[in-house]
Design brief:
The protein is of the alpha/beta class and about 375 residues long. It has helices at about 35-40, 60-70, 95-105, 120-150, 155-160, 165-170, 175-205, 210-215, 225-235, 240-250, 275-290, 290-305, 305-325, 335, and strands spanning about 5-10, 15-20, 25-30, 50-55, 75, 110, 255-260, 260-265. The chain has 3 domains: about 5-110, Ribonuclease H-like superfamily/Ribonuclease H (Nucleotidyltransferase, domain 5); about 120-205; about 215-345, no CATH class. The protein contains 14 helices and 8 strands. Helix 2 (about 60-70) links the parallel strand 4 (about 50-55) and strand 5 (about 75). It is globular. It starts with a strand and ends in a 26-residue tail after the last helix.
Length: about 375
C-alpha cells in the first residue's frame, strides 16, 4: 500500500507525517532541519512512499533538492491555495503535516512550481540586486533631504550620482553633516559597483537565453526588466495559456462573483510580485516610447482612470510576453492591439512614426 508524506517545514524544525492510501496515520515525528535525520525517518518506508509534499516556506530549497537527490518524488505545497477546515477545535504542526498528506491522498493538493535549481541562484541574485538598488535609492533620497534641510538647496539626481565624497563634505560646515554626507556618497559608490558586478554575472548567464532576447522586442522592456521577466518566468510553457500567465503576473482582476453579482474579492497577491512590478514598469515606459501603447492607454484612461489603464496595458504586455517566450516568435503589435484604425492616424492619413525606442538602462 502506497504512503503519502506531508512535511510541515519551519525555520528550525520539520514535522513529518506519514499516511497510507486508506487514510491511516502511520507515524509522525518532529525533526531538526537536518536532511540526514529526515532521510533516516523515511528510509524504512522508501519503497512504499509515492509522493512527499513540502510546504512552500522561505527555506524549502535544501529539503526539496536533498529529497530529490535521494530518489523521492517531491511536490511543493502552495499555502495560499490550502484552507484547512475552520471548524477544527485544535490544530498544530501534527495536524498540518497530516493535512498535507491527506490532500495528497485525495489528489487535491494545490502545488507550486519547483524552479530549476541550476538557474535558481541567478534568479535570486537578480532579486538581491533589486534590494541593493532600493538601498542606494534610500541613500540618495537621504542625501538630497540633508541638503534641502540644512542648505535649502535641491541637488539634481545626476549631480548626486557623480559627486565625490570630498565634494559632498565641502558643502557643509558642521562636522556631523560632513561625516554623514561623505559616508553616504561613499556607500552609494560601493552599492553602484556591487550592482554592476551582479548585472554582469546575470547577463553572462541569461543574456543569451532566447526568452530574454524575445521579451526585449516588446515596447518598454529593456535590460533589467527583460532579465526579470525571463528569470522569474522560467519555462513559459508551464503556463497553459497567456491568460494564466497574466494572472500569475497579477495583471488580472481579483473578483468573486455569484449569480452575476460581485460577492467580494479573492487573493489579490496570488502570483509573482516581481513580474507584477516588471510589467507595470514596462507599461509606464511603453506609454512614453510606443505610439500604439500610448493610444491604448489613452483610450483606457478616458474610460476608467490612469491606474487601471496602466494595469490594462501591463496585462497586454504580459500576454504578449508569454506568446513570444512560449512560441519563440517575434513581437507582433497587430496581434496585441489589432489592426490600426484610420482614426489613429494624423491628418496625412499615414501611421505616425514609432517611438525612438526605450532606455535599456533605465529599467
Amino acid at each position: 500500500m502506497k504512503i503519502m508524506v506531508g512535511i510541515d517545514l519551519h525555520s528550525n524544525n520539520a514535522l513529518c507525517g506519514l499516511m497510507d492510501e486508506s487514510g491511516q496515520r502511520l507515524v509522525h515525528k518532529k525533526l531538526p532541519c537536518d536532511l540526514p535525520a529526515i532521510l533516516e525517518l523515511l528510509a524504512p518506508y522508501k519503497e512504499r512512499i509515492a509522493t512527499l509534499a513540502v510546504e512552500s516556506t522561505f527555506n524549502w530549497y535544501w529539503l526539496v533538492d536533498g529529497l530529490q537527490d535521494h530518489g523521492y518524488h517531491v511536490v511543493l505545497a502552495n499555502p495560499a491555495g490550502m484552507q484547512p477546515y475552520s471548524g477544527k477545535k485544535h490544530t498544530d504542526d501534527v495536524s498540518d503535516a497530516y493535512f498535507l498528506a491527506e490532500l495528497l491522498r485525495l489528489n487535491l493538493l494545490p502545488t507550486g512550481h519547483i524552479y530549476d535549481r541550476k538557474t535558481r541562484p541567478v534568479r535570486d541574485l537578480l532579486r538581491r540586486r533589486l534590494l541593493l538598488v532600493r538601498q542606494r535609492t534610500t541613500l540618495i533620497l537621504s542625501f538630497k533631504s540633508l541638503n534641502e534641510r540644512t542648505l535649502g538647496q535641491r541637488v539634481p539626481l545626476a549631480r548626486v550620482k557623480a559627486m565625490k565624497p570630498e565634494e559632498a563634505q565641502a558643502r557643509f560646515t558642521d562636522p556631523a553633516d560632513q561625516l554623514l554626507s561623505a559616508q553616504q556618497i561613499t556607500l552609494m559608490g560601493h552599492l553602484t559597483d556591487s550592482i554592476a558586478k551582479l548585472e554582469q554575472h546575470i547577463l553572462g548567464v541569461a543574456g543569451k537565453w532566447p526568452a530574454y532576447q524575445r521579451v526585449q522586442e516588446l515596447p518598454g522592456i529593456g535590460k533589467i526588466l527583460g532579465l526579470t521577466i525571463a528569470l522569474e518566468t522560467g519555462d513559459a510553457k508551464r503556463f497553459a495559456d497567456a491568460g494564466n500567465f497574466a494572472s500569475y503576473c497579477r495583471c488580472v482582476k481579483s473578483l468573486r462573483q455569484s449569480n452575476g453579482k460581485k460577492k467580494g474579492e479573492n487573493n489579490r497577491k496570488c502570483g509573482n510580485k516581481y513580474l507584477a512590478w516588471a510589467f507595470v514598469e514596462a507599461a509606464h515606459f511603453a506609454c512614453r516610447y510606443d505610439d500604439q501603447c500610448r493610444r491604448f492607454y489613452d483610450r483606457k484612461k478616458q474610460q476608467t482612470n490612469p491606474i487601471i489603464a496602466t494595469k490594462a496595458l501591463a496585462c497586454k504586455l504580459a500576454k504578449a510576453a508569454w506568446h513570444v517566450m512560449a512560441e519563440d516568435v517575434s513581437y507582433d503589435a497587430t496581434r496585441v492591439f489589432g489592426p490600426a484604425k484610420k482614426s489613429d492616424f494624423g491628418e496625412t492619413g499615414r501611421e505616425p512614426a514609432k517611438g525612438s525606442g526605450h532606455p535599456s538602462q533605465a529599467n
